[in-house]
Amino acid sequence: MSLTFIIAAIVTIVGLTTPILLAALGELVVEKSGVLNLGVEGMMLIGAISGFAVTVITGNPWLGVLGAAAGGAVASLTFAVLVLQLNSNQVATGLALTIFGSGLSSLLGLSFTGRIIPVFGSIFPASLARDPILKVFFGYSPIVYFAIFMVFVVGWFLRSTRAGMILRAVGENDLSAHSIGYSVVGVRYGAIAFGGAMAGIGGAYFTMVITPMWAEGMTAGRGWIAVALVVFAGWRTGRILAGAYFFGVLMALELYAKAAGFSFLPSQFWAAMPYLMTIVAIAFISAREKTGSSAPACLGKPFLASS
Amino acid sequence: MRIKLEKRLNPSVFMLVATPIASVLLTMLIGLIVFDALGIDGIRAVTDIFFTPLLAAYKWQDVAVKAAPLVIIALGISLGNRAQVWNIGAEGQYIIGALAAAGVAMAFGTTGGFFVITLMIAAGVLGGAFWGAIPAWLRVNYRVNEILSSLMLTYVAIQVLGYLIGGPWKDPNGRNFPQTAPLAPDQTLPILFPGTTIHLGVAIAFVLPFVFWVLTARSVFGFQIRVVGSAPDAARHGGFNTRQTIWMTLVISGAMAGLAGALELSGALRNINLGFPSGYGFTAIIVAFLGRLHPIGCLIAGIVLAVTYVGGQVAQTSVHIPNSTAGIFQAMMLFFILASDIFVRYRVRLVGRPGKAAAVEAGE
């Protein structure tokens, strides 16, 4: 295996990992606050088309990313109003958001099919970003660095800040948090909007970096893998990074298997691999834990203050 | 004044029935406003989506054929949801069911008839049940969340379909398109009314809700599902087996989805291509909720959703709205029905602030 091949492989893996990493970090914060939002796939699709549309209109990919975050956050707020204000079932409402997101994105996407957009320039000097070896560190889209940066931000926020502690308290025991004066609903609104924004940026990675164009349903279930990743990681930030790269490697295997024309196994086998491995990984992790105690105690349960 | 929620002792039956109707009406209203805002003839669009399929007799067969898989799949899904078991992988079970039926048909070559068709349908039911049993096995033995596993298996099923129709099962006369050969004429379901597309599967979809109704209302199993769903602790004390409930609901809902797949293949589509997974398994989730997880509700809601599918195609040609609009309408209905749940479980009261009320009293 040559060095160029290894570098090309790493670049591919990083690219495939970034969207699920972003979406999973967002979902982690949502779930830590005690809310299960299964609408990640829908929010990613809405982010994908919003980011693309804003970039087409303004010609500026940075504004596009902001648009994607805003699109994802606005979409998540429909979910938030239903589950927080009207106490609707979180599982069903999340599904509704996914169905809604795929419908809305394909409607919005009609006028953007076949359009091309300016892509991100590198934030590093060309001598570093184009270097055949150093590009493994410097050759990525700014969103990639943002995703890695957010791993540390989210980890630090949840572990070491007062706000993060309140958020975890709300997720572990909403009634106690409420009784000592924290706004359970307010905290959850913030968490859900953050989750939406992160999923939106993750979705935009598809339309703005991987293939700079719009196609219906192009996130292809990655949002669901992000949800699975949070479970798989046992609600821990560091493990989300590791898990995301695990899936990134699996998805890269599919591409390389296709390119290499491995004829002893059909290409569909490799395409199914990330989904199969998700199941196996969750089975492995869940079976090992004695009581499943790593999940936030209030996850998925509606909160109704008694007064 | 503020809003106060009082938990009802029993869900309001009036609200259970009224809210789905209100959700559909509200969806129409929002659609009308949004279309007008987009510069599309809103009244025409909403009329075409929701009423034309019902008013034009030649559209009834389309509605009936579209409703059949939705109703059948939704029956299984609602059974699970009642027990808080979430099968969102019905799409995958539907695919595997259809593939199993196609496999049987292929094994018999061009031989058809009652025996072969029955065998095809049985294979579809078993195939779907098997695909639904995997999440059950994983949940019971390894505590894998069935939402995630059933959905992941849908993507696996799509790859299985892609492999089979592009490889070993590819139609040799199909101009190299990835698709199975069309079923032999004797392998297709009988048409109920000559000159229409209404096949035997439509009748099955119409009868099954009543069978489910009787079974779930009268059997211990039906009671068990409701208890496990609404009061898991009580169910344990009462000796009801949660593991068994998970197995049963997932296997049955898988079997229903598989049945729908087999009927769709042998009754409507006659072969399997890459477009076969058209999202019925996901839309059926909406049907189950709009039908309030009740078998007869599923029947009615299945027809409503089928109307929006057929109406969406009408509106596509009449006012040039894209096909995906129907999907948005369907999702909107689900949002409204979920939002209105609160009226079923709670009594919503407007009450004055206690302090204010006291002040008013004192002033008198």
Kindly list the characteristics that best describe this protein.
heterodimer, A: 307 residues, mainly alpha, 13 helices, 0% strand, B: 364 residues, ABC transporter involved in vitamin B12 uptake, BtuC, globular
Give the arrangement of secondary structure elements.
The complex is a heterodimer of chains A (307) and B (364).
Chain A lengths: L2 H30 L7 H19 L2 H25 L4 H20 L16 H4 L5 H4 L3 H19 L1 H11 L1 H6 L4 H27 L11 H11 L4 H24 L6 H22 L19
Helix pairs in contact in A: 1-7, 1-10, 1-11, 1-12, 2-3, 2-4, 2-10, 2-11, 3-4, 3-10, 7-8, 7-12, 11-12, 11-13, 12-13
Chain B lengths: L1 E6 L5 H25 L4 H9 L1 H4 L4 H23 L7 H18 L6 H29 L3 H21 L33 H19 L1 H11 L1 H6 L4 H28 L10 H11 L4 H24 L5 H16 L1 H5 E6 L2 H10 L1
Antiparallel strand pairs in B: 1-2
Quick structural gist:
The complex is a heterodimer of chains A (307) and B (364). Chain A is mainly alpha-helical and 307 residues long. Chain A is 72% helix and 0% strand.
Q: Can you give a write-up of this model?
A:
Chain A has 307 residues and is mainly alpha-helical. Chain A is built from 13 helices and no strands. Chain A is globular. With 364 residues, chain B is mostly helical. Chain B has one domain: ABC transporter involved in vitamin B12 uptake, BtuC (Orthogonal Bundle). The longest helix of chain B is centred in the middle third of the chain and has 29 residues. Chain B is globular. Chain B starts with a strand and ends with a helix. At the A-B interface, helix 4, helix 11 and helix 13 of A face helix 6, helix 7, helix 12, helix 14 and helix 15 of B.
